[in-house]
Fold this sequence. Notes:
The complex is a heterodimer. Chain A is an alpha/beta fold. Chain A has 31 helices and 37 strands. In chain A, the strands form ten sheets. Chain A has a seven-stranded mixed sheet with strand order 14-13-28-27-26-15-16, with helices on both faces. A six-stranded mixed barrel of chain A has the order 32-36-33-35-34-37. Chain A has a five-stranded parallel sheet with strand order 21-18-17-22-23. Chain B has four helices and no strands. The longest helix of chain B has 15 residues, at 3-17. The interface between A and B is large, with 59 and 36 residues.
Amino acid sequence: MQSIAERDLGTPARVSPKLVTLTIDGQQISVPEGTSVMRAAALAGTSVPKLCATDQLEAFGSCRLCLVQIEGMKGYPASCTTPVTQGMKVATQNDALAKLRRGVMELYISDHPLDCLTCPANGHCELQDMAGAVGLREVRYGYAGANHLSAPKDESNPYFTFDASKCIVCSRCVRACDEQQGTLALTIDGRGFASKVAASQNESFLDSECVSCGACVQACPTATLSEKSLIEIGQAEHSVVTTCAYCGVGCSFRAEMRGEEVVRMVPNKDGHANHGHSCVKGRFAIGYATHPDRITKPMIRSSINDPWREVSWEEAIAYSASEIKRIQAKYGRDSVGAITSSRCSCEETYLVQKLVRAAFGNNNVDTCARVCHSPTGYGLKATLGESAGTQDFDSVMQSDVIVVIGANPTDAHPVFGSQMKRRLREGARLIIVDPRRIDLVRTPHIQADYHLQLRPGTNVAMLNSLAHVIVTEGLLREDFVRERCEPEAFEKWRRFVAEERNSPEAMQSVTGVPAATVRAAARLYATGGNGAIYYGLGVTEHSQGSTAVIGIANLAMATANIGRPGVGVNPLRGQNNVQGSCDMGSFPHEYPGYRHVSDAATRALFEAAWKVPLRPEPGLRIPNMFEAALDGEFKALYLQGEDIAQSDPNTQHVTAALTSMECIIVQDLFLNETAKFAHVFLPGASFLEKDGVFINAERRISRIRQVMRPKGTYTDWEGTQLLSNALGYPMNYGNTSEIMDEIARLTPTFHSVSYERLDRLGSIQWPCNEQHPEGTPVMHVDTFVRGKGKFLVTEYVPTEEKVNARYPLILTTGRILSQYNVGAQTRRTANNTWHDEDRVEIHPHDAEERGISEDDWVGVQSRAGETVLRARISPRMQPGVIYTTFHFPDSGANVITTDNSDWATNCPEYKVTAVQVVRVNQPSEWQRRFHEFDERQRELLREAREPAEALGAGAPR
Amino acid sequence: MNPRNLVKMANDIGRFFASEPQRTDAVAGIANHLRRSWDPRMLRQIAAYVRAGGAGLDELPHEAVQSLNIPETPATVPSGEPVPGARTSSAG
């Protein structure tokens, strides 16, 4: 069922500078060439009856309901498949058409249950609507003939049902799976009367290849495919446009509501990032927001061995402020800090960094981008001049050669992955640089031209080899470089990459990729037309993460693949607001807009606005905070929406640092792993409970809007404001719009951003200022932000994390489609149906050598620690490399990862850990300790939720 | 902080800039990176470590740290200084 708030124009929009004028029912209208008669009529205000057509899918012409009469044309053409022509005269309604349509509807209704009053789609069923539209008053065939009314119902999927008895075989679901999602999991099985929708080879939806993106459910014109929430709750009565809180694609959704209850999340057709598409997380996995695990009352305790005590917000804030003051008085102003979250809004992260700089009086603020895309910020700023990707997502539709490096878009950025697949099905060429055989290497109708299956940790060697081919084979775009880039830096780089030691042949023994393949890939990227590079954490989470980002920017500049649609350098950001949290000054060395704290003019601007002196030196990064904590110099930490005890590397090091602190304040939805080490818990608010903006991977600023009151009384920014006021630094914002106005006032790239403008335009890509009042889809068009583009030499430095006889395998980590990051949200939804534990993937050869079979428990040992997981034998891995995810805390993936990090930003080297794998029959020592600690902390939480008088717990100091 | 970690971090930075053809550019690049990304207490600690001999620190970062001329004691914000006081006017 489509959104209750959207009108369907029947067929997709066409873009053409040429307008065609026609007459429909005597009314003249001009539309772009290529538009269908159906759409033209809808634009003229006339809805031609239809069933198989929807403006989200290409016209199909099967239902025969949208027939029209066109002067000079024989018969009754389908308006959905007939394009407009100049001077065309169309009649959408007359006696002959009405009779034909009624006849068609009679056939449909003769084989459809007449249970409209109890049907979940009642009132929004297109079949019901069409019966009304064509004036159906009788069904001459009766209902006693052969029919599908007893067809079985498939309820296997946790989120939607498939009721075949209601199916009209319009193929919209099949086409949505093909065109929008690109999975091709559905088909029409059988012929004629026996035709039916089938998932994969007539399997249940759950067992099929279906990825539960929901496109088929949205496309269904009847109740055949219905959300279970819609069936249970009933239809929504209003909808609110908001933005998904999962990955960096930042899909726009309509939250369809009944009062304060979410009936369903429907992807917004007008959403600029997703154009009406969604994935299983954003579409369905929102149950966490109302999960019983939510903690909705503030709690405090003086020691992590004490029971929690539920208190008022006033008491929790007063206690937090007194502890911060006490600690600063005892250990110094720099002994406290905070961590902002990519899962919170821009306004919230802005306020936390302001709290640190203005109220704490230091620069000890950092964000989770430290552990994911901080190298992107560094590398792109150094070369291009701005710490952000260069394109919008739609740019990919103009790419001729797509290079995917260290990213797995179909799992981690699924909606953009689907858009990329659309372009690939249209014929764009594909190069994949990844140690794993990700799905994109070979998927329906897509086959990568080259898969450079390199060894983990050798990205820079590979990028240098690609650059070597481009430079030495005369594939450089010297005209572009001469005009747009710094000449001396370019010459230095050219000489460097041209050295024989950087050739594919010389580097073959390092990367493991045949030189001829590397040469062919380089030639394709340099000469194949518009070349676009998309990369992810497989690039950044390395000891040379920043160098690799620089290497990617070098390649784009050298081939002139920058500054226009279809090209560019595109970081696929992990979390929904990771771009925004960085933009908002969450790094210890930068104010909002990536301006260094040492810059006197910028500092003066903020000092004047915030009315407080500010420090000119960088503060501590997250790993520096851990080190300082273990040294006894860092004693208090305020974490808003972050779970460093699960997400950061070398877990035992992290928990030792947390244990050494005297006041940890966690503001979150749940008692996450970090909160088990906390002294103050402030209830967080989900994205459904607050206003603000998120900024996605394409710099797109999108509104989130409150659809229900905060379950913990206050939204996150209000909690920060209360803390600031209690510390003596006044904050008096009345709403988030006022915070955004301050951000805009103080940040040149945001100067023209306001809620009013966002409401008017839908979303805006920064920079949005006087020069670009409606935003900037493509950056660096005429000049680079830094003026001239700067090539930098990217010497390959092998990681110090080496394999040896004791640790002969390389572990690399990643994500899967159904779970999200530390899993705090998705683990509390039915997404566990698809992935309820983290597994270690191992190549059959490595498994056989160790006597490991599928599902065996295996110990994974590294220099940092050991954990135990079940094995999955998978040829996706290359021999010598194993893979796991980190969505479940007790799997301990980060117990194994080490302290190694990127040279420039200290982004952890998650992707390369030397390990050994052996069969075991019991959990690791760490896991035993984890379970004991976890159970104890849950018990202390349970005690807090019991009546206070029964506890007898003393007040914290 | 553990000097071994600071030395490792400084050496990692040094290896990126080591490819600069001019030694002075490499040293300046390292020094600039340290100044722009390290907390002052880390700079003070590595400077003290260099003054004590700087064992394990590669040549270029060793030279870069020296070029920063970091004083032995912090110039501002002594330990124990209280939080800046509240301002009288609204900062919101």
